[in-house]
Amino acid sequence: MNKSLEHKNVVLLTFGLVCTTLIVFTKNISDPVNEPKLLTLGLVSFCALAIFILPNIRFLFQNHRTMFVVALFSIALMLMISVTSDSPFSQNWYGVQGRNTGFLAHLGFIILTISLLTLKEIRSVDKVLAGLVVSAGVNILYCLWVLFFGDFIGWNNQYKSLLGTFGNPNFISSFLGISSSLFVTFLFWRNQRPWQYLVAVMLIFVSIYEIVLTKSIQGLILVVVAFYINVFYFVLTKFGRRIVSLVYLLFGLCLAFLGSFGANGKGPLASLLYQETFAFRKQYWLAGIEMGVRNPLTGVGLDSYGDWYRQMRTEESAVSPGVNVVTNVAHNVYIDAFANGGIFFLVIYLFPTILAFISIIKVSRRLKQFDFRFVSLVSLWSCYQLQSLISISQIGISIWGWVLSGLLIVYPKLISNQSNTNHKTVKTVIKNRVTTLTRTPMLILFSTVAVLVFSPPIIADYRWTSAYITRDATKLQASLNESFLSPSNSFRLAQAAQIFEASNLNSQAHEIALRATEFNPRNFDGWQLLYYVKNSSEVEKSLAKKMMIELDPLNPKWRELN
């Protein structure tokens, strides 16, 4: 891949990353955030497959064989998990409603990570970082607009807080904290003009202000971590004394130790860091670990944590957060991987993270001066990894975590390429011309395939929401008919049964409640609806009660039902 072609490909890739982060679509769909982001992720990843991976398969096998083989194995493993899971195949494939982090999302993440391993120009990193700056800048400006003029996106803001382009105050807090680390690195970079320092300082302060308004502490912690990492590399390259760097590193470990205690409500930092939701997350983690322990080989199914949470939670969770509080995600990316896919999936999930960490160690040991690109990648990646331990895999944020891992893995080779520029042969030039000629048809083909593969969730949601707006029972029922472009999910079936029951269309409500239990026998809501709809027989009610007790054994309410 010559410089000109790599430049064009990376610009296209970066444009896709920015679009995935920023896209929000509110017209006649119930999920304006995750379904559009899944579709955009599919487009950018399949385009990357066409222009980065397919023309460079031999290169990848020769230079990144282990990572390439692990990626292929992970795709095969996810397919096996999707087929063998007790949860519906469509749920494994597209992900659960409101998350959409099933097989397809992970396929997109893996493709993007492998694509970046084909880079040969270190300046390509600059373009990706510029894309992150654009994504952060748009979110910062959007949040400012909401504060001063009101929200122009027509969604139901149940949090009454800043949402950014992620639909949740915790997510925008995390994203602003992660992106702020890039602006912090600007402050330590010498090759800047005064106005650039001023802009960086303004962006940091505005980001912190918006993070505070979200009332989510995640972002503030990440800003502190960003400063710590940048100071570490500044000290390492400025003084060149390992003893000074080691002392500073030990200081950071002590601070992290006190911080973990503070998050648990103990120690001197408890008043600053403790939040009740952290205690809830501990219970979510324990339930996820239990799922993985009981299903060690293939887990409970991709994006299927919610189907098992009630059954796997601890007795302590009945007190806090309470028997009526449920979740469909572990609030820890790696525990989620263990719960959903088992031990092998967790190992594969950790693999790019481990390789990225090894690259950080390699480059750091040889670092003689402050490298803006490298320190930016390390700071951004570290902040992402930290938030992934206490938060959810959200497509618009996770896409950057996987991309950063890919850039860090390939970074040592990019440095080597920079110092050893080789003359290209005539054969290489001819090959590059051929690649340029075939680029556009390949992009069109793979974009078309991506739309067909990744669009069904948003198409099904659009059909359902459009029918719901009309209040026409016939259209509403027709929108639930399952097809390739309109897959079923438990959320819509449950919502439809409730609507028909409230409208005294009891036979339709009963029919859909039965469909819900057949579609996903592990979904608690389907059995609860079957018990309460008027047209259910005594036999059906008895079965529904039995299943509710089995799926939610810690809730005494179900045993008390007549």
- Summarize the helix and strand pattern as letters: HHHHHHHHHHHHHHHHHHHHHHHH
Helix content: over 70%
- Unreliable segments of 5+ consecutive residues: 422-434
Total domain units: 2
Average pLDDT level = 90
Which shape, going by the Cα principal axes?
globular
Biggest pleated sheet: none
Structural class: mainly alpha
- Please give the alpha-carbon distance between the first and last residues: 70 Å
The count of helical stretches stands at 24
Number of distinct beta strands: 0
Beta content comes to under 5%
Rg from alpha-carbon coordinates: 25 Å
SSE arrangement:
Blueprint: H1 3-22, H2 34-53, H3 57-63, H4 65-84, H5 89-94, H6 103-116, H7 123-149, H8 169-187, H9 194-214, H10 218-239, H11 242-263, H12 270-273, H13 276-294, H14 305-312, H15 333-366, H16 372-388, H17 395-419, H18 426-454, H19 456-470, H20 473-478, H21 490-502, H22 506-519, H23 524-532, H24 538-551
